[in-house]
Structures are given as structure tokens and as C-alpha cells.
Design brief:
The protein is mainly alpha-helical and about 120 residues long. It has 6 helices and 2 strands. The chain has one domain: Arc Repressor Mutant (Orthogonal Bundle), CATH 1.10.1220.160. Helix content is about 60%, strand content about 5%. Strands 1-2 form a two-stranded antiparallel ribbon.
Length: about 120
């Protein structure tokens, strides 16, 4: 999957700033968690709901880090299971991250809540 950077929605950018104040986690780490949380939902995120890309821009390596192979494999598996055409991969990746940020910030108010979320998923 080719992309050099991913642009988040304005809403996700604001939520990530608040989330960093609550947990100390940087946006790139939070986006990794958000993507996996959204994929774990086992349903398709709405591309229309998560199409805004006027927020923070994160380059590929910063977003994926040394977990690139694992994270993109997980995402690609989800795409294959949901019959997503390769030309739509980026849009769904973008939607999963933005939906996941929303889910993550609604469920986690601090590091103790994050630990509970990770235990239960």
C-alpha cells in the first residue's frame, strides 16, 4: 500500500491533542491504537463520515514506526475480508484512523482506562 503521509480530520486532530494531555501518548501512537480499535469493530467505517482531511498530517514512518509490517498486514487482512478494492485502501485506512480516534477518546479518559481497554480487547 503506497502513501507517504496521512492527513487526519480536524476533529481527530483536536481530540488527539486532548488525548495527549490525558495520557501523554503522542498522536502517532494514538493513531496506531485508534486504527486497531476501529478494525476490531468488524464493520465498515463510513467513508462519508470520515472524509475530512483538513487536520494534522503525519508521515508514514511516524505513523507506523517499526510496526509497519504488522499494522499494514492487519489492515490489508481487514480489506481482503471486507472485499475492499485496492484503489480504496487509503480511504478506508483514513476512515479507520479517524473513527478509531473518536472511539479511543470517548472510551479512554486516562492511562488506567487505557489499560482496561487493552485488557478487554
Amino acid at each position: 500500500m503506497e502513501f507517504k503521509r496521512i492527513k487526519l480530520s480536524q476533529a481527530a486532530t483536536i481530540k488527539l491533542k486532548t488525548f495527549k494531555m490525558r495520557t501523554g501518548l503522542t498522536p502517532n501512537v494514538s493513531c496506531r491504537l485508534a486504527m486497531t480499535l476501529s478494525i476490531n469493530e468488524n464493520n465498515m467505517p463510513s467513508l462519508e463520515l470520515y472524509s475530512d482531511d483538513t487536520g494534522q498530517e503525519i508521515n508514514r514512518y511516524t505513523f507506523l514506526g517499526d510496526q509497519e509490517l504488522m499494522l499494514l498486514s492487519l489492515f490489508t487482512q481487514w480489506c481482503n475480508e471486507n472485499n475492499v478494492a485496492k484503489e480504496n485502501y487509503y480511504e478506508y485506512l483514513h476512515a479507520h484512523i479517524n473513527r478509531g480516534v473518536e472511539m479511543l477518546t470517548n472510551r479512554v479518559k486516562g492511562l488506567d482506562c487505557l489499560l482496561e481497554l487493552l485488557k478487554n480487547n
